[in-house]
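Troubleshooting: if your tokenizer reports a length mismatch, compare your output against this known-good record of 144 residues.
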Amino acid sequence: MNISTRGRYALRAMLDLALQSGDDPTMVKDISRRQEISDLYLEQLFSRLKIVGLVRSTRGPKGGFTLAKPPSQIRLSEIMQAMEGSTAPVACVDNARFCSRADFCITRRVWTEMKKVTDEVLESTTLKDLMKQVAEHEVETSGA
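Known-good structure output:
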């Protein structure tokens, strides 16, 4: 199973936005520079994230993006669903009609379990959790 650049970059951009969160919007060009992601590509990602209600945009010279809700309320599952759709490694997990063998296929059980575990991790992890990990990593690497 592979997560596309769209999913990976959206998660990085959302974490960056969460880390910068304050009263002022964060400009795409700043996220682009920090994350080394094209600002045009980020604009596309944020457009999608705005549609699903994860970010808000502000126009103008001091415009940019802000999180639409606190980091503790944004689950990674929401971000990945917006960017990737289903986490099923094969189509028959979500829709048995894709395969005539689905009702008796033993390997389908493995794929179903993979999706379940992936969904549990993404659903139980928030941007706030990742922010804590960033802070812990900074303490570890600073030698404190």
